[in-house]
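Troubleshooting log. The previous structure file for this entry was overwritten by mistake, so regenerating from the original sequence record. Sequence copied from the archived sheet and checked twice against the printout by T.R.
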Amino acid sequence: MAEIHPLSLAIFILITVATLLISIYASRRVRTAGHYYVAGGGVRWFVNGFAIAGDYLSAASFLGITGLIAFAGYDGFIYAIGFLAGWIVALFLVAMPLRAIGKFTFADALTTKFKSRSIRLMAAISTLVVSVFYLIPQMVGSGSIVGPLIGLDYEVGVIIIGGLVVFIVATAGMVSTTWVQFIKGFLLLIAVIGLTVGVLWVAGMGPFEFIGKIISSNITLPSGAQVTGEAFMSPGLKYKDPLDFVSLSMALILGTAALPHILIRYFTVPKPSDARKSTVIAIIVMGIFYLLILFLGLGCIYFFNQGVTGVINPADANLSAPLLAQYIGGDVFYAIISSIAFATILGTVSGLIMASAGAIAHDIYAEVLKKKMDEKRALRISKLTAVGVGIIAILLGILSKGQNVAFLVGLAFAIAASANLPALLCTLFWKRTSEMGLVMGIAAGLVSSIMLIVISPTMMGSGAIFSLNNPGIISIPLGFAVTIGVSLMSKSEVKEVITEKTAT
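Regenerated output below.
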């Protein structure tokens, strides 16, 4: 068991109690399935914009990218570029039209054209797979940060996070989740600004001078290897194969607009224009965050090369940001930054479990299996489902100890871009899309991306059959090709059944 830090423990308890109080208070407003899944569609666009940022800026963004930049330079920063660039797709192609046709879940949007159980089932399965791949790194991050924060073992940290999230989701659903994510977005923005200022202050340089210093220096990596600063700030340190680099970039840029837990946030605002406004606010917040995260990663490697051994843990890159905070501002800053990282994980995991619970309780149980139930029973089933998903998330987090969280999230993006994005864009913008095209397209993207991950170096190491770490360059085009090809081969006189749209 790690050493207990009294201040860290106090802030941890404060955030925990505040989160529980928000959930208990918000539970009074949850009376229907609409309130539970999408907060009744009444969230203001400014609040939703920060909540989107709070949902999206996960452990992968704060903990994982900082570590990847410190360990791999430019190849780590590509995650930040990809995570942000993907929001351009969401802003111009997805936000407004999705809000116009959606209801509670990703599957609801796809089934506005076809009242098809097959489409809904495939969309629900895809939602669950993507959410699980995304949940794993969040739970890994929770164990990595909560353990050292309050002096507990990794497994206990995972259980604490999982238990808190289950309480948040099971009590008030999207109402409490929204406010947890909103507060987290503000805190995370303040944290990254404060850390960046601290890095530059201690280094005694301005931002451009600091980057120039890194480029002109010889860099000793945490592994002990030495490279020039130019090589550290150029592609190729982690991804030797250019195709692997392109594949990762495709997954990150195209996957953002197809993540189920992000898509459902568009259903929480009153009208389509609010969805676009929310996206603009989210992009501004995330743009500042991802620009400044570069200085956190570079700060770690810079001080490490100045002989500061406590700023990097070679065995766990996910601890780079908290260790940097401890060096910059001592135990107080360490406690604050670590606690904000803890809040970061709470918000993202809450959104993921909401998406998973909706896929099981609403899509599969209520719509595919056609189980008749009133609002009270629907709420009960949804909450029980959330508890079950939370328990699974805890088990997966314990089993995945030691994995880099940003790298794992890249795989979730690849699956989302391969299975969900082709179906979503074709539903929104292509009149010839057929029911079978959507079903086969989701299946092809889902199966191909997972199969390529299984036979890649990620899973098989040096004996991998597929040489790339990320499957996006193959599975994403395949998902689009199958969706379009099967639609063209299907009968053109597709029977479109447009369900009642949400308020515009």
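Strands lie at 218-220, 226-228. Archived copy saved in two places this time.
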